[in-house]
Write a structure and sequence with these properties.
Length: 375
C-alpha cells in the first residue's frame, strides 16, 4: 500500500526525548519548549512565538486575545477544518462563511467584503494546503473596516507571501504540528503574536490565567490567578520530539517540495479534461507542498478515481466536508449566502500521497496509475 501520509523519521528526536526524560522536565515551558519557540521565531523573522498543545488551541487563544464575544461575528471560509469555527463559537460569537476560489481553495477576496457587517470583528484566513491566501486585498479590507486578521496557518508552516512568512501576516497566526503536518510533534501547535500589546495577556491565558511568566522573570514574588485562562502549553517531552523535527526542517521541506514539483509538472503537462483545478505554486511566494489535491469537475469521476487508486493499493483521500453543509455548520448559513459551487467539495477534491518519506519510485506508480485512469 502506498500510504497517503507518514511523519518523517523521528531518529533525530530520539536523543532529545531521552535528554528530556532523563532531566525529568516533562511539564510545559522547559528547555525544549524554549528551543522550539526560539527556532520558530528566528525562522519566521523574529515574531513572538508561544508553543501550544494544538492549532485548535492556538485559534481559541487568538479569539480570546481579541476579546471576541457574544454578539460579534467572525468570517471564516466554509472550506476549512471545524477547529476554525469552534474557536469562534466557544467564545459565544457567530461564524459567517466566506467563499473560496475553486482555482486555489483560498478565500476569494472579491467575495469577502459583502460578508462584512457592523458586527464583524475578525476574519480568519486559512492558507489551505500550505499556499498563502492573497493577503494584500484581504488586509486592505480589514483595515478599511478596522477588523483583525487571524491566520489559520495550520497547514502553512514555512510558506510565504511577498517575502513574509505565513503566520506573520495578520494580527495573530496559528500553526499546527499535528501528525498529519510536514513537521510534527504528534499533537502540537504555536501561536504567533504580531501585535506586541497582546503578548503579556497571551502568556497569562495560556498558563491557566496566572502570571507565571512574570513570576519566572522575577517580576512578582509569587504567581496568582489574574485572568480567565486555560492550559495551552504542551509537555516538554513533545517539544523534544518537535525540536528534532525542526532540526531537519530544510531536509524535510526539500523532499516535500521535490515531490510537489513532480506532481505539478505532471498535471500541467497532461492538462486532464476531468480536472477543474489542482495544487500549484503561488505567484506570491513559496508554498510548503503540504497537500497535493485534484479538484475533479464532477463527483462521479472523483469517486471512480478514488476507488481505482484504492484498488491499486494507493491511498488517496478526500478532505473537509464544507462547514456550511456539515451537521453542525449548516445552521450558520444565512439566507443570502450561496455556497452551491462548494457543496460537493468533500467528494470532488482528492488528495494524493505526499510526505518527505514518500519514495520517488512510489510517486511514479501514483502517476502511472493516474494516467491509466484518466485515459
Ligand atoms: C485548517 C486547519 N485548522 C486547524 C486545524 C487543527 O489543527 P490541530 O490538529 O493542530 O488542532 C487543522 C488540522 O488539520 C486544519 O487543517
Amino acid at each position: 500500500m502506498i500510504k497517503f501520509h507518514q511523519p518523517y523519521k523521528p531518529e533525530k528526536s530520539l536523543k532529545y526525548i531521552e535528554k528530556n526524560l532523563r532531566a525529568l522536565e516533562l511539564s510545559g515551558d522547559n528547555f525544549f519548549t524554549n528551543k522550539c519557540e526560539s527556532f520558530i521565531s528566528d525562522y519566521i523573522n523574529g515574531k513572538k512565538v508561544l508553543m501550544t498543545t494544538s492549532c485548535t488551541h492556538a485559534l481559541e487563544l487568538a479569539i480570546r486575545l481579541l476579546d471576541i464575544k457574544n454578539g460579534d461575528e467572525v468570517i471564516i471560509p466554509s472550506f476549512t477544518y471545524p477547529s476554525t469555527a469552534n474557536a469562534v463559537l466557544l467564545a459565544g460569537a457567530k461564524v459567517v462563511y466566506a467563499r473560496v476560489n475553486l482555482d486555489t481553495m483560498l478565500i476569494d477576496p472579491d467575495l469577502l467584503e459583502e460578508q462584512i457587517t457592523n458586527k464583524t470583528k475578525a476574519i480568519i484566513v486559512v492558507h489551505y494546503g500550505g499556499r498563502c491566501c492573497d493577503m494584500n486585498p484581504i488586509l486592505s479590507i480589514a483595515s478599511k473596516y478596522n477588523i483583525d486578521i487571524i491566520e489559520d496557518a495550520a497547514q502553512a508552516f514555512g510558506s510565504t507571501y511577498n517575502g513574509k512568512f505565513a503566520g506573520t501576516l495578520g494580527t495573530l497566526g496559528c500553526f499546527s504540528f499535528h501528525q498529519t503536518k510536514n513537521i510534527t510533534s504528534g499533537e502540537g501547535g504555536a501561536l504567533i503574536i504580531n501585535d506586541e500589546n497582546l503578548i503579556k495577556r497571551a502568556e497569562i491565558i495560556r498558563q491557566k490565567g496566572t502570571n507565571q511568566e512574570a513570576f519566572k522573570s522575577g517580576l512578582v514574588p509569587r504567581y496568582e490567578w489574574v485572568d480567565i485562562g486555560s492550559s495551552y502549553s504542551p509537555s516538554d517531552l513533545l517539544m523534544a520530539l518537535l525540536y528534532g523535527q525542526l532540526q531537519q526542517l530544510e531536509k524535510i521541506q526539500n523532499l516535500q517540495m521535490s515531490l510537489f514539483k513532480t506532481y505539478v509538472d505532471f498535471f500541467k503537462k497532461h492538462n486532464f479534461d476531468s480536472l477543474e483545478s489542482f495544487s500549484n505554486f503561488s505567484s506570491y511566494g513559496q508554498v510548503n507542498g503540504h497537500i497535493f489535491y485534484l479538484l475533479f469537475k464532477d463527483a462521479a469521476t472523483a469517486t471512480a478515481y478514488k476507488s481505482y487508486m484504492r484498488e491499486n493499493n494507493i491511498q488517496v483521500v478526500t478532505h473537509f466536508v464544507p462547514l456550511h453543509i456539515s451537521k453542525k455548520g449548516s445552521s450558520y448559513l444565512r439566507p443570502q449566502d450561496d455556497f452551491t459551487p462548494e457543496d460537493d467539495l468533500s467528494i470532488r477534491l482528492i488528495r494524493l500521497p505526499i510526505y518527505a518519506g514518500l519514495m520517488p519510485s512510489d510517486q511514479k506508480i501514483v502517476l502511472e496509475k493516474t494516467l491509466t485512469f484518466m485515459r
